[in-house]
Design goal:
alpha+beta, SH3 type barrels, two-stranded antiparallel sheet, 1 helix
Length: about 70
């Protein structure tokens, strides 16, 4: 997800038109700023990613969903 806004240990993030509040607690040793990308699992940002890594992850996920549905 892409970080839109940071407020302490919480961030407003967006991916594919969906916005969520995400905890940054697990990344407290790494500053996170708006515009950066994070991998989110059950509401927690678990690692920072580059834009290319995020795009690639979404492409793979979309392929998996297409195969599951087809």
């Amino acid at each position: 997800m892409q970080v839109i806004e940071v407020d302490g240990y919480n961030a407003r993030c967006e991916a594919k038109g969906v916005e969520r509040t995400v905890s940054l607690f697990m990344l407290q040793d790494e500053p996170v700023t708006p515009g950066e990308f994070v991998m989110v699992h059950v509401g927690y940002a678990i690692q920072k990613m580059t834009e290319e890594e995020a795009r690639s992850a979404w492409e793979i996920y979309d392929e998996m969903l297409a195969l599951e549905g087809g």
